[in-house]
Amino acid sequence: MSQHGINVLALLKGEERYVFLYDDRSLDQVLQTLGRYAADPELSFTWYDAAVLSQRVRKLNAELDIAPSDASEAPTNRIQRRAA
Questions:
Q1: Res 23 pLDDT > 70
Q2: Each residue's pLDDT tens digit, 30-44
Q3: Which of 50, 72, 76, 83 has a 20 to 30 Å separation from 65 between CA atoms?
Q4: Residue 11 class from Cβ within 10 Å (0-12 exposed, 13-18 middle, 19+ buried)?
């Protein structure tokens, strides 16, 4: 069974906050956005930040694609998914 919730990805850099909300269907879009932010010289968001966050996005996606052996182990409230 596929669950469609909101994923939260956040990066705190000093006083700045980068928060990305995305669902499973917009995985490619969030990865592209990370690249666009890294390429923007007006932002403090670096290519290193993009690499770390994209790795977290991919890892979280891979972990959730594995079907739990017991239905009671399935996440019930996907909005709690976070990587910071």
A1: yes
A2: 999 999 999 999 999
A3: 50
A4: buried
